[in-house]
Specification:
By secondary structure, the protein is of the alpha/beta class. Helices cover 34% and strands 13% of the residues. The protein is globular and about 60 Å long.
């Protein structure tokens, strides 16, 4: 009977996750995760360069991709980007500047107004996929020469069209990345990585791990692509549902640190349960509504322990002056100063 009683109590808490006062039932329709190789992969596989087969986007590792492009001259690389912009632009391990060029072509080729700002002069788009709501990764700073690299992974309601949409300053994927780079300085490159299908609203998708699991696979491959082109080991910054993605991906990356903030949980009961050598940091502001979300995990719903709780074992990030759920990158906040120090390897 006691075991049955505990099961009922856990089930009640899980129901609270999706229907309780925390508001998790307010989300929109269930999203279909975009996975697999980019559009145009079939045409790419049927092509060749200098008589050599092209690396299969579905099976070739980023390191194999890097070796392939190292064997081509500049004219050969650019010709492939011209013929297959969506593949080259999303091919982890391909030269960084070539991916920027390919993605300018890929964005323009969609003819879609919602994506047009991504092709503006000066934008450094490292990945772009127009399927579904669209996915994008944008670099702020000089990724090829940076001494430090940070990757910002956002949460719900972000996609290629809203990635840099007008909103409160220093929020949203691009806003957070710009703010972090300004605080960290010119030797740090920051990637705003909206490279997975995010939940819409805070409904069942946000309470479950399905989209985070698909996103973690993509994030792990993306970080391997950074390593393949010689970038420093990154620091991952996960906001809200993006922290779930980071938690699942951590052990499959070479990240030096994983920083989570406004997190509903990492699908692990302790930092050690993430099975990563990266240092784990956690922050939550005093007025962040995420504190009202029950930290439970039952029947696939909920994300487990609160990473800011002492028992979880993460290093605490000061956030006493953070306002709301999205204020962590506001200039002058304790959290932004701490984030910059972590990104530069100066925090202990």
């Amino acid at each position: 009977m006691r075991r049955f009683g505990r099961s009922l109590a856990t089930a009640a808490l899980a129901v609270a996750v999706v229907a309780g006062t925390a508001g998790w039932a307010a989300g929109d329709s269930v999203q279909t995760a975009v996975t697999g190789p980019p559009p145009g992969a079939s045409a790419w596989r049927a092509d060749s360069a200098s008589g050599r087969p092209l690396p299969d986007p579905a099976t070739a590792s980023p390191y194999e991709v890097g070796r392939f492009f190292a064997g081509l001259d500049e004219a050969g690389r650019r010709e492939l980007a011209r013929r297959h912009p969506l593949v080259v632009g999303n091919l982890d391990g391909a030269p960084v500047a070539l991916r920027y060029e390919a993605n300018r072509l890929a964005v323009a080729a969609t003819g879609q107004v919602r994506f047009a700002p991504l092709a503006a002069p000066g934008r450094q788009i490292l990945a772009f996929d127009p399927r579904g709501r669209g996915q994008v990764a944008e670099v702020f700073g000089d990724l090829e020469r940076a001494a430090h690299v940070a990757v910002v992974v956002p949460g719900s309601d972000n996609d290629a069209a809203s990635h840099d949409a007008g909103r409160a300053p220093h929020t949203g994927p691009a806003g957070m990345a710009r703010s972090l780079r300004a605080a960290a300085g010119g030797d740090t490159a920051v990637v705003a990585w909206t490279g997975y299908t995010t939940p819409v609203g805070v409904g069942l998708d946000a309470a479950a791990g399905r989209l985070a699991e698909a996103g973690a696979v993509r994030l792990a491959r993306f970080t391997a692509g950074l390593d393949a082109v010689g970038a420093p080991d990154p620091v991952l910054f996960g906001h809200s549902y993006g922290s779930v993605v980071c938690g699942l991906a951590a052990r499959h990356t070479d990240a030096s640190d994983v920083v989570v903030f406004g997190s509903p949980g990492l699908r692990a009961e302790t930092a050690a349960g993430l099975r990563t050598r990266a240092r784990i940091w956690a922050a939550r502001g005093p007025s962040d509504w995420i504190a009202d979300v029950p930290n439970v995990a039952f029947a696939g719903l909920g994300h487990g322990a609160d990473p800011t709780s002492p028992g979880f074992g993460a290093r605490a990030v000061a956030a006493a002056d953070v306002r709301g759920h999205t204020g962590y990158f506001a200039p002058g906040t304790q959290s932004l100063a701490a984030f910059a120090a972590i990104a530069k390897g100066q925090a202990r």
